[in-house]
Amino acid sequence: MREMKERDYLWCILNLMLDDEEALGQLCPACRAEALEGRCPGCGSIVSQQEGGHNAAFDQERFEALGRGAAL
């Protein structure tokens, strides 16, 4: 058995994306819209952008200061 190369992984990812696109194409417009909504994998409720992806420990001011090259 041979090791997978980067192009093999790319081929797999591309085919997974095409499979997802094909599956969405088989849905009616209402079901397609629902499938594309961001949903909680646990309970299925709609997740807003503010709920997920926010790191409470992230310091925006420090991030901006470091971006300007300031030493902290």
Folded structure, characterized:
The chain is an all-alpha fold and 72 residues long. Helix content is 50%, strand content 0%. It has helices at residues 6-25, 29-36, 60-67. The longest helix is centred in the N-terminal third of the chain and has 20 residues, at 6-25. It is flat and about 55 Å long.
Care to give the gist of this entry?
This protein is mainly α and 72 residues long. The chain contains three helices and no strands. Helices cover 50% and strands 0% of the residues.
Features:
single chain, 72 residues
Shape: flat
| Helix share bin | 40-55%
Q: Tell me about the largest β-sheet.
A: none
**Structure summary, number of beta strands:** 0
User: What's the mean pLDDT score?
Assistant: 86
Please mark out the parts with pLDDT under 50 across 5 or more consecutive residues, or reply none.
Answer: none
Distance between the termini: 52 Å
Number of helices: 3
**Classification by helices and strands:** mainly alpha
Radius of gyration in whole Å, from Cα?
Answer: 20 Å
Order of SSEs, N→C? HHH
Strand content: under 5%
Topology of helices and strands:
Elements: H1 6-25, H2 29-36, H3 60-67
